[in-house]
Design brief:
rRNA-binding; about 35% strand; Ribosomal_uL23; Large ribosomal subunit protein uL23; about 35% helix; Nucleotide-bd_a/b_plait_sf; about 80 residues; alpha+beta; Alpha-Beta Plaits; four-stranded antiparallel beta sheet
Length: about 80
């Protein structure tokens, strides 16, 4: 099942991508941390270090921290953010 709906692109999330190696996604409400981790690793061919999740007004957000060997900016480029 595809849990990732779309990347969230704001000034804050872009700074997080550049400085902290984190990518923020809008995800399905039924998504779990493990499911998001597996989907990000499979879809973007990266290693995920950590997943934080929160419920927001517009849905559920997942903040994915990539392992140091991988670049969130590169993944963002592949998604068309940059």
């Amino acid at each position: 099942m595809d849990y990732i709906i779309s990347p969230i692109v704001t000034e804050k999330t872009t700074l997080m991508m550049e400085k902290e190696n984190k990518i923020t996604f809008l995800v399905n409400r039924k998504a779990t941390k493990e499911a998001i981790k597996n989907e990000v690793e499979a879809r973007f061919n990266v290693k995920v270090a950590k997943v934080n999740m929160m419920i927001a007004k517009n849905g559920k957000k997942a903040i994915v921290t990539l392992a140091k060997d991988f670049s969130a900016e590169e993944v963002g480029g592949r998604m068309g953010i940059f």
